[in-house]
Design a protein that fits this description.
The protein is mainly alpha-helical and 331 residues long. It has 2 domains: 212 residues, 3-Layer(aba) Sandwich (Rossmann fold), CATH 3.40.50; 94 residues, Tyrosyl-Transfer RNA Synthetase (Orthogonal Bundle). Helices cover 56% and strands 6% of the residues. The chain is built from 12 helices and 5 strands. The strands form 2 sheets. The protein has a 3-stranded parallel sheet. It has a two-stranded parallel ribbon with strand order 4-5. Helix 7 links the parallel strand 4 and strand 5. Helix 2 packs across helix 11, helix 3 packs across helix 6 and helix 6 packs across helix 7. The radius of gyration is 22 Å and the shape is globular. 32% of the residues are buried. Bound molecules: adenosine monophosphate (AMP). Adenosine monophosphate binds next to helix 1. The site of adenosine monophosphate (AMP) has 12 residues, from helix 1.
């Protein structure tokens, strides 16, 4: 079986966009590949952060992913495997300053920092972030990395780093990781369907995967259906998004019947919203139930993830032993 690796930053809540766009796919991939999923807390240190919240959010993300169906043995916390940092240093010495300056995400994040404070602190960590990402991938010899288009440039950098390392040391050691594209829906903000559902826009712009039923229903009920820019005869972005949510939730009977109403100009938006709210609640209720069960057993679950990380760490340590040997460090 081929190796798959994907990582997520511990950013707090998970929303429907994260689920339909990434996590649902990760759960499925576990049947076909040797999957490893990392909650990458070292990466979260690259932007201004709060230490207490970082630790809280790291565990929160672990519990969320488990509740969604990620197997505990496939899940690790990055900072429990410090070999990622050691490899990142070594790979940093085969990465050029020039190629890092060309990373568009670095420029975007610097712009984001400067938006609120023109003198904002930009760390070396933020600049070197893609090298740590390459280390995350190469340390486990990942064949595939499920990514969206926004991560293409970083994966290409990982491949270049692997290639340069292999060339420099005259050995085909690192696998060249390939992207694994899966068709995933893009979910839009219920409050502004011209934008992607995202936490950074604020609370009303995302539907929490573990949200309270009342709040989720309210959010869907007040979802924007008409932004005032509708083109005659064309479905508005907000209505499209609601149909997309029905499709993504696999409620095709409700979808098809509401679509028939839409096509015959008989659709009441309140019915569409009711259908979507029911579908979303049906989807997320089992997640909330599983989360509650995991939380009752919090200590055991945390131990399990410590153990899984220790087991996964052995693979990282094996890679580092080989890399130290190849690169001339003392072994
Ligand atoms: P983020 O924390 O925003 O980087 O999101 C983590 C993952 O969730 C990304 O890799 C995206 O593939 C996915 N994702 C985030 N927002 C959306 C969205 N609105 N629709 C679909 N997928 C999304």
């Amino acid at each position: 079986m081929k190796n798959v690796l994907s990582c997520v930053q511990p950013t707090g809540d998970l929303h429907l966009g994260n689920y339909f766009g990434a996590v649902q796919n990760w759960v499925k991939l576990q049947d076909e590949y040797n999957c490893l999923y990392g909650v990458v807390d070292y990466h979260s240190m690259t932007m201004p952060y709060n230490a207490t919240l970082l630790r809280e959010n790291t565990w929160k993300m672990v519990f969320y992913l488990l509740a969604c169906g990620i197997k505990p043995e496939n899940l690790f916390i990055q900072s429990l495997i410090p070999e990622h940092i050691e490899l990142s240093w070594i790979l940093g010495c085969t990465t050029s300053y020039g190629e890092l300056t060309r990373m568009t995400q670095f420029k975007d994040k610097v712009d984001q920092l400067h938006e609120t404070d023109k003198d904002a602190f930009v760390s070396l960590g933020l600049f070197a972030y893609p090298v740590l990402q390459a280390a995350d991938i190469l340390i486990y010899h990942a064949d595939y990395v499920p990514i969206g288009k926004d991560q293409e440039q970083h994966l290409e950098l990982s491949r270049n780093i692997a290639q340069r390392f292999n060339h420099q040391f005259g050995k085909e050691y690192f696998v060249h990781p390939a992207p694994l594209y899966t068709e995933t829906p893009k979910i839009l903000s219920p409050a502004d369907p011209n934008k992607k559902m995202s936490k950074s826009l604020g609370e009303k712009h995302y539907i929490n995967l573990f949200g309270e039923e009342d709040r989720v229903r309210k959010q869907i009920k007040s979802a924007v259906t008409d932004t005032g820019e509708a083109v005659e005869g064309e479905m508005s972005a907000g209505v499209k998004n609601l149909f997309e949510l029905l499709r993504a939730s696999k409620e095709m009977d409700a979808h098809d019947s509401l679509m028939a109403d839409y096509l015959s100009n008989a659709l009441r938006y309140s019915d569409l919203k009711e259908g979507v709210a029911n579908a979303v609640i049906k989807l997320i209720n089992p997640f909330r139930e599983r989360l509650a069960i995991l939380q009752v057993d919090e200590k055991n679950v945390k131990n399990q993830i410590h153990e899984a990380s220790a087991e996964i760490r052995k693979r990282a340590q094996q890679t580092l032993r080989e890399v130290r040997d190849i690169t001339g460090l003392i072994v």
